[in-house]
Amino acid sequence: MQKSACFYLGKIVKKYSFKGELLVKLDTDNPEDFLEMESVFVDYNKNLIPFFIESLSLHKSSLLRIQFESITNETEADNLLGSELYLPLNMLPKLSGNKFYFHEVIGFTVTDSSFGLVGTITGVNDNTPQALFEIEHNNKQVLIPINDDLINKVDRDKKDILITAPEGLIELYL
């Protein structure tokens, strides 16, 4: 399995028990959506390795307590600390309305209610405190914060996002 065909689920942050149980910090608003998993891919030595799940449950509502079938002691669990977990893209829960996954909107056009056509989303920068749309407009990059207050409508059929950017923000880049 290639990483490009997967989405990041979370990271193993600590051990839970001497039997090899691990705690995973999930990158999701709805951790309960992932309580029925049978397996997961673990990024181990830059390879995605499938691990089958013996048991899992929520721990303090934001962490996933997981026991892999092949991990039975602390030493084996130590080897996985800090590893990232991935699942195939087809396991992402479907979103509707104005909710979207970042990878899903690459290639969408962005239209501002005042400015008009802004351009095409070429990427999403989520390495900043506020995630940003990276939009190409006439060979220039425009950055728009991804914020519920700015997004008016996500039209999946037309592959368009209607926004209302703060006055002067778009012009700042042009």
Q: What does the model show?
A:
The chain has two domains: 3-91, Beta Barrel (Elongation Factor Tu (Ef-tu), domain 3), CATH 2.40.30; 102-173, PRC-barrel domain (SH3 type barrels), CATH 2.30.30.240. The radius of gyration is 20 Å and the shape is elongated. The mean pLDDT is 92. The protein is built from two helices and twelve strands; from the N terminus they run βββββαβββββββα. It starts with 5 loop residues before the first strand and ends with a helix. The chain is mainly β and 174 residues long.
In sequence order, what are the helices and strands, one letter per element? EEEEEHEEEEEEEH
Radius of gyration: 20 Å
CATH superfamily of the largest domain: RimM
Q: Give the strand order of the largest sheet, numbering strands 1, 2, ... along the chain.
A: 1-2-5-4-3-6
Helix content: under 10%
For the record, give the distance between the C-alpha atoms at the N and C termini, rounded to a whole number. 41 Å
Pick out its properties:
six-stranded antiparallel β-barrel, 12 strands, SH3 type barrels, single chain, 6% helix, 174 residues, mainly beta, 2 helices, six-stranded mixed beta sheet, Elongation Factor Tu (Ef-tu), domain 3, elongated
Strand and helix map with partners:
Blueprint: E1 6-15, E2 22-26, E3 39-44, E4 47-59, E5 63-68, H1 74-78, E6 84-88, E7 109-112, E8 116-125, E9 132-137, E10 140-145, E11 151-155, E12 160-163, H2 169-173
Parallel strand pairs: 7-12
Antiparallel strand pairs: 1-2, 1-6, 2-5, 3-4, 3-6, 4-5, 7-8, 8-9, 9-10, 11-12
